[in-house]
Known about the structure:
One of its GO terms (molecular function) is ATP binding. Residues 23-264 form the ABC transporter domain. Keywords: ATP-binding, Nucleotide-binding, Transport. Pfam families: ABC_tran. The chain is 39% helix and 25% strand. It has 269 residues and is α/β, with parallel strands linked by helices. It has one domain: P-loop containing nucleotide triphosphate hydrolases (Rossmann fold). β7, α8 and β8 form a beta-alpha-beta unit. α5 (135-148) crosses α7 (168-180) and α7 (168-180) packs parallel to α8 (198-211). The longest helix has 15 residues, at 2-16. It is globular. The model is unreliable at 1-15 (pLDDT under 50). The chain binds adenosine-5'-triphosphate (ATP). Adenosine-5'-triphosphate binds at residues 32, 35, 37, 55, 57-63, 75, 222. Residues 32, 35, 37, 55, 57-63, 75, 222 line the site of adenosine-5'-triphosphate.
Amino acid sequence: MDITINKQMVQKNEKEQDFTPVFKINNLNLWYGQDHALKDIKFDIPEKQVTAIIGPSGCGKSTFIKTLNRMVEMVPIVRMSGEIMYRDKNIFNPKYGVEELRTQVGMVFQKPNPFPKSIYENVAYGPRIHGIKNKKVLDEVVEKSLKGAAIWDEVKDRLHENAYGLSGGQQQRLCIARCLAIEPDVILMDEPTSALDPISTLKVEELVQELKKDYSIVIVTHNMQQAARISDRTAFFLNGEVVEYTDTSTLFSNPSDKRTEDYITGRFG
Ligand SMILES: Nc1ncnc2c1ncn2[C@@H]1O[C@H](COP(=O)(O)OP(=O)(O)OP(=O)(O)O)[C@@H](O)[C@H]1O
């Protein structure tokens, strides 16, 4: 009997390790002044899968995702310790430029934030900054990115109209296209559907499923059903700690920690 359990546990552990990590987070701590917002975070994020970050308000979800592209450092009172390896490079190494990191690790925010420019210029902006000047090449990048974000058919006849004329859901998919245009490796999404109606939310969720074929995705969500629907792995955060991190179906059907069970069954949060 014991042997069977041990064998099952080994198989489960092997299954859990069975991915190529895009990020390895080791003993990450973060303080806002005296407030210890992230505590000894340690887990690996797989490539070409969707990783959901869930937990109650104030548990550190947004803070965590913003460490992955070092955006959190824009807050002056932030202090950090520990290590984040992105494809075997330590992102806190001063030799690793933040621009290079953010080219590889794109981000989509809670509220769609297009530039006050045309649909075309929103998508062409990043490639232009990266030195692409040729109109034909830019046209191709814009089309490919808009197709990749499942919005091409809706905007192909109005590419030179202002992006503010799009609906909220279209603006969010435009922001995803803008992110794709710089050919990232990872896409961070911080509650990307919380400002959207149910139909637009569904479109973005379907899009995330498509995008994971080519990109590694980390998504913060308040919505547990969304995490269960679209993610492969889920990390449950509480008070700045990772309580449980495992494949999504296990976390929602058979959580190993009582606090996870209480949260997913709605006892708090
Ligand atoms: N810019 C900041 N300055 C000081 N403290 C901050 C700052 N941003 C976040 N915090 C604190 O860090 C902790 C974690 O906040 P964070 O926004 O990461 O949580 P969250 O889980 O994303 O919350 P929510 O679901 O409400 O967005 C909270 O105690 C918050 O007050």
